[in-house]
Amino acid sequence: MPELSSVFPHLVHLGAILYLVCFLFRNQILLRCFAIIGDCAYIAYYYGVSTVPLWDAMFYASMNIAINFVMIALLLRDRREGDFSVEDLHLYRRFSPLSPGEFRRLMKLGNFEQTDYDRKLTTEGQPLEHLYYILEGEIDIKKSGRKIKPESGIFIGEVAFLSQKPATATVTIRKGTRIVVWSSAALKSALAKDEALGHGFQSLLNADLVSKVARS
Question: Per the count of CB atoms within 10 A, which of 14, 116, 165, 182 is most buried?
Answer without folding.
Answer: 182
